[in-house]
Amino acid sequence: KPRLYSGMQPSADSLHIGNYIGALMQWRDLQESYDAYFSVVDLHALTQPNDPGELREKTRRTAAQYIAAGIEPSRSTLYVQSHVPAHTELAWILSTLTGFGEAGRMTQFKDKSARYGADATNVGLFTYPVLMAADILLYQTDVVPVGDDQKQHIELTRDLAERFNSRYGETFTVPMPVIQRDTARIYDLQNPTAKMSKSAESDAGILGLLDAPSVTAKKIMRAVTDSEGAVRFDREAKPGVSNLLVIYAALTGRQIAALEDEYAGRGYGDFKKDLAQVVVDEFAPVRERALAMLDDPAELDRVLAANAERAAAVADRTLADVYDRIGLLRRV
Ligand code: TYM
């Protein structure tokens, strides 16, 4: 089976519907036909300030949400990044192959460093995409399913793989991104021209996978729309309604045109009420399973440990090959 790799940061108590539609739903479907690896990238999360106790909790919560959403830890390898030391080791090697300017051109770094200012920007934020490249390349990955915001990082990963291969001989598989065009970017419900993001100032526009059903419904009923009153897809003129249509279509597997027909001549109230039901029906069972798992963290920790062992066996082989090829003296 071809290899698949993807991951998410444990940067909030709950994943949001952008993570769910942009990534998790694809992971769940693809895990059948791939040898899949899914990580909770806790080392990446360190590029933001973190309370130690909260980071541990968010890491478990993220893993529990993967499983609750249908990632099967007996079929796919689901683990915590820091449990496999080869990630940071390969990241160091790759950083010596990455140009300073090349890393500086990453738009996510440019956005974040502009937002925080030079003094509050840590070097980890700069080398973040190199660690991500190490994640992917350690597993000889064929495909990386992600939302559209990660595309540039995967292009860098491909460049690094090709550079290493041409300098030291065929070592890494060059991975392909898999990005679902229609759902690759879900927007904030209160600010529908901005990507839904865990770092948003207010969570009123963020639908959390672990939100209580009444909270989900309230957030959808209060979503920003427009004054036209017609349920119609038009990204430019109607970003709010268009975003809700994309969510509705993604969760039901229905076409946007069919939804437009169904709601023709009806107001936003009906449309939002139905959408709230769709999202609650989708999220409620996932939420219940995740919360139940979090009641027994010891069992979850055992699953993660067993999976990390599987991951490390693959990662260590690649790392040993890399060390050999670049001429690090082997310890006898
Ligand atoms: P992260 O944690 O920001 O996001 C996890 C996944 O969710 C997708 N996503 C979205 N998709 C649609 N609409 C949105 N509003 C939205 N917000 C987030 C992201 O594209 C991503 O697929 N650098 C990565 C984590 C990472 C990784 C990796 C991914 C580290 N190593 C190796 C793949 C392979 C990140 O910060 O994702």
From TrEMBL:
Major subcellular location class: cytoplasm
GO cellular component, as recorded: cytosol
The enzyme's E.C. designation: 6.1.1.2
Binding-site positions, L-tryptophan: D135
Motif ('KMSKS' region): 195-199
Taxonomic lineage of the native organism: Bacteria, Bacillati, Actinomycetota, Actinomycetes, Micrococcales
Protein name: Tryptophan--tRNA ligase
Function: Catalyzes the attachment of tryptophan to tRNA(Trp).
Organism: Microbacterium lushaniae
Localization (cell): Cytoplasm
A single MF term (Gene Ontology): ATP binding
